[in-house]
Amino acid sequence: MQKISASSLALGPDGLNIAQSFFKPIHGALPPPPTTRNTKISVIGVGNVGMAIAQTILTQDLADEIALVDVNPDKLRGEMLDLQHAAAFLPRTTISASVDHSCTVGSDLVIVTAGARQLPGESRLNLLQRNVSLFSKIIPPLSAGSPETVMMIVSNPVDILTYVAWKLSGLPANRVIGSGTNLDSSRFRFLIADHLDVNAHDVQAYIMGEHGDSSVALWSSISVGGVPILSFLDRQQIAYEKQTLENIHKEVVQGAYEVIGLKGYTSWAIGYSVSNLARTILRDQRKVHPVSVLAKGFYGINGGEVFLSLPTQLGRSGVMGVTSLHLTEDESQQLQKSAMTILEVQSELGI
Amino acid sequence: MQKTASSSTLGPDGLNIAQSFFKPIHNTSPPPTTTRNTKISVVGVGNVGMAIAQTILTQSLADEIALVDVNGDKLRGEMLDLQHAAAFLPRTKISASVDFSSTVGSDLVIVTAGARQIVGESRLNLLQRNVALFSKVVPPLAAASPECILLVVSNPVDVLTYVAWKLSGFPSNRVIGSGTNLDSSRFRFLIADHLDLNAQDVQAYIVGEHGDSSVALWSSISVGGVPILSFLERQQIAYEKQTLEKIHKEVVEGAYEVIKLKGYTSWAIGYSAASLARAILRDQRSIHPVSVLAKGFYGIDGGEPFLSLPAQLGRSGVLGVTNVHLTEDEENQLRESAKTILELQTQLGI
Q: What pTM was computed for the model?
């Protein structure tokens, strides 16, 4: 049990102990009930991604308690202090840290970012082996410490690692979710919104399937302010080629690699993406997000237990259901191919 | 001139949906030339600059954010990383340039550029490196946004705020240093943590130099309206001056400790600067301990030092300095702090 404490040494029983008589309780007061509606989020891994997520959650006031876990105790304590020092500028949030899972007990949401970072040029699938053995060590104690938690996986390759986390945690499939293509879809919506000079919130566009090279852009379902894009183009007699659509999709997939190539990693966008998912879950928003879920039985995906991104309604209990979009035959085939890509790699893992 | 790059696969060379997507209504006139667009520029996209930019973005404080850095790749990467979050945020225009072209017409310019404080290096040692940098950076910034407020974060912040004031030609109410705003937050956190209390109920200022000679105003600390020192006396809780100094020292050490543990500080200064940005741009008229031209206050008369005093901030920058009562000891410490800063300033020859 290795908790990291920030309490001042100069204030307290060994120093200046103001606390002993500062507040006087009123008569007839009872101690607080053991079951409080405290919202607790744990973030595993305090690298660039983990800290961008933790800090965004803190700024957006989504939790009463944030617990941080990492193998590196110095880095961990430094990050915890850096957040605590902002106390005067934020609503009161308890921030704790431990190198083991002890500070995560009783979490409502556990966000796993631990794992090796994707290097420039490295495909997400190459990270896999390194991260699977790490998960075998960290996932079981996390679910044991928070048996009612929703678990969100961010580490890459996210689809397979969400499957792995599901198997290792013993949690029901509705409570294990991967951040999936939530961010890819945001990049997609940004590109279209930027071109149309419109707010990205007005662009409804999903990228589904693998969070990676075989993801599927659902062009047939893209609409802007209620106007389906492809039928708009047909009505306006604006010619377009399949190749052009594929180029736009390719630009989205390349988006992450481009940022990694330029600044060494991505952090801010994934921070906002995961914080957005955290809000939907913890505030029971019942919104639809493209996230990595157990896809078996949907859209003709039947050959095995594969996790990949589908448009999913999320709420306090995690995954409420998957929406029934109409896919073109081409999109359906691409999605099934995406599923097979993932299943091939999964079967080699032997979990 | 190196601005943002929109997608080329969408647009005249690719799929040009925009040409007929929206139809204007009849009898429209173009938008007025003076829009109330709030624009913040952040100079330097290191850990501090990006923590500030990202917090400002999350807190929705600006309509436009411009980023500037010498490193073109890093700059573009950071810009894209913020833009990619468009679906999760209110629409904010994010631009970037390695020169100052993207900063034109800013309401607030936040300068974080400069060498990072290395483990064990005191803030004053950074000085010479950063003065030369400011000579290149501040004049064009001021020329591009002649009405802006300049907020200096780079260390050593007090001297560099003075330098920025001289180089910009701005009136002194429009040049502010982040100063001891964060030190005071650390101080308030320590006390609040001990009392199991919300830090916002702790009124406590650290003033003077943002550094080793800062001054903790113990005589003015109050919690929920209860002045701490008189509370201790009434409760007959004995305390020594030494103990108070230890607590203050822990605050000063706070930054160095974080730097030693994680290599730098970022999040706390990000929140601190965003809090100042809000007070200024939303004309909050709230009091913050920030680095201002201290000449004429508390017997500080020799020269033009910038150091932190409790200052009221609003849309025009510094509205005034509050008249906090200092003990004789605190006043002496403050004047010592001013002397420390002035000594350095005179060596600069600006």
A: 0.93
